[in-house]
Amino acid sequence: MRLKKSWQFRKVYDEDAKLVCDYTVVFYYRNPEECKGPSFGVVASKRVGGAVARNRAKRLLREAARHFSANMNHQNIWIVLVARTSINGRTSAEVRDDIGRAMEIAGLITRSI
To answer: Is residue 69 domain-resident?
Structure first.
């Protein structure tokens, strides 16, 4: 499931649970309500670059989210992936590994694949 509403993003940001990675910042919120699985949102600001760079960054983050959605320890969780400028020029595998290491340390996933 995707986070789409601004209040959902604000709720995740206000929780103050974040992981700083090399290419992204991962904000997460353990939602006490029953969900159908983890929900992800992706953000790439103008600081990342022009429209082409931002869209590529968001594609990389969405691909990482799809990869990790099946391996989450908590099914009632909202996650926002925010692209950093260092994401430019990275491959999907590099971004996925970077996010996976941080999520594994935080206990959000069982193991990085």
So the answer is: yes
Number of domains in the chain: 1
79-93 exposure pattern, b = at least 16 Cβ within 10 A, e = fewer: bbbbbbeebeebeee
Give the Cβ contact number of residue 96 at 10 Å. 22
In the block, tokens 């983050």 appear at: 61
Is 111 within the bounds of a domain?
A: no
What is the reported pLDDT for 111? 65
pLDDT digits (tens, 9 = 90+) for 35-69: 778 899 999 999 999 999 999 999 999 999 999 88
CATH number at residue 71: 3.30.230.10
What is Dmax (Cα atoms) for the chain? 38
Residue 26 pairs with which residues in a beta bridge? 19, 81
Contacts with 30 (C-beta within 8 Å, 6 or more apart), sequence order: 17, 74, 76, 77
Task: Tell me whether residue 52 is in a domain.
Answer: yes
